[in-house]
Design brief:
With 155 residues, this protein is mainly α. It has a domain at 3-97: Multidrug-efflux Transporter Regulator, Chain: A, Domain 2. Helix content is 63%, strand content 4%. The protein has a two-stranded antiparallel sheet.
């Protein structure tokens, strides 16, 4: 599933403990965390960074399907190596342009930059791995020669 396919949609204000608009279900921080496999502290961290903005029912935070979708995008973005600033900029574009044209342009540019960086890093990793494998062979050969020499010494 593509990052852009998970773009959240606007939702109505919550009615916690009562009938949700259009069948929408609301989650507590604990429920959302369990649903996404993350801690409540992680959710609050992303809330503090302005990536999600849950509604309140009294003193209880309630999370909508939109908040859940935004959290999925945040977690996926982090797993793909995007910064919180990049993720926030991407999410904020949805609120400004519901056609998603600008959002998709920004996403495409960010993905292309990330791919270029990862390809460069892959090249560096392949070079490092080749050097380490060469050293490994040299050390194994030296140890084998040492073991052979030790066997030949009369004891």
């Amino acid at each position: 599933m593509a990052l852009a396919e998970l773009t959240p949609t606007p939702s109505a204000a919550p009615t916690f403990g009562g009938a949700a608009p259009a069948g929408e279900r609301f989650l507590t921080v604990t429920q959302l965390g369990r649903d996404l496999g993350i801690t409540a502290r992680t959710i609050r961290f992303y809330e503090d960074k302005g990536l999600i903005a849950p509604q309140r029912a009294g003193t209880t935070r309630v999370y909508t399907a939109r908040d859940r979708a935004r959290m999925i995008l945040v977690l996926r973005g982090k797993n793909l190596g995007f910064t919180l600033r990049e993720i926030k900029d991407y999410l904020d574009l949805y609120d400004a342009d519901h056609t998603q044209v600008e959002q998709n342009k920004v996403l495409l540019a960010a993905v292309q930059q990330r791919l270029a960086l990862l390809r460069e890093q892959r090249g560096s990793l392949e070079t490092t791995i080749a050097e380490l494998e060469d050293i490994e062979r040299q050390v194994q050969a030296a140890l084998a020669r040492h073991a052979d020499a030790a066997k030949r010494v009369p004891g």
